[in-house]
């Protein structure tokens, strides 16, 4: 049972990271409104591939909840019916969650794949929650934390809906991203508790404090990074399609994000040196440094090479992996003084 549970917990973790990757692709391609409703997409479980499917036509059956675009607005079928030769407004009600009514098949399917990944991750977490009842007598914390993950995934889905209804409100996007990292931390904690052969490393209290500090700084950098991305989104919405212009007049969040990365790197290098000096055997600190190198290089590539394709997703995903490695490193340590 232990091995099976750990396997499903690891699968859940991988799928949550897959959602983060898909979410990064959505943000990079500007596909956040590819599906303007939730949980369906234009009222379909499998979204359309051609705008013709979203236009009214005579003698056509529309099912209840399906959406059409008419007069640059979204209209929802009140019931299942077949149209006559002329449009009857009484069969439709205006979609009032927002006024975004644009169909782009590329954006629609990028967002739809993101939602599919979320659904798969949710099912895996639910399976983990069900299997966790085997630990109820032995380790209640595993069961409780597993179900906290299940409810957190539900909350995350609700957050995703509010992001759509708000037409990509920056604060809600940031909250959505932070919640994904919280779920990563929960699952890592579950995996650590379920393992029986993990040896915690005793470290001085100052090292434990430094580990917490570097983790907090990584989270702060992720938050600031989403704000920088919002600046780019504003530039694109304003019609600036030339990537060379996106950071020509950056806001303070950009300067903070870029400059503060020096502090993050410096603290982690200090941690690496202390690990060697005190022979603490915190091997994952090497992973942290490698991930930081990728973060710095991808950040420089976006600025100096003007956002090469896929680099934004790389930057976001490896920041998320960095957070996970740092958190698990914390779990493997305990204070000895």
Number-wise, the strands total: 7
Rg calc: 23 Å
Largest sheet: 3 strands, antiparallel
Q: What coarse outline follows from CA principal-axis ratios? A: flat
Number of helices: 8
Strand fraction equals: 5-15%
Detail the poorly predicted runs. none
Index terms:
337 residues, mainly alpha, three-stranded antiparallel β-sheet, 8 helices, flat
Description:
By secondary structure, the protein is mainly alpha-helical. The protein is built from eight helices and seven strands, in the order αβββββαααβααααβ. A hairpin with a 2-residue loop joins strand 2 (67-70) and strand 3 (73-77). Helix 4 (170-194) packs across helix 8. It is flat, with a radius of gyration of 23 Å. The model has no long low-confidence stretch (mean pLDDT 91).
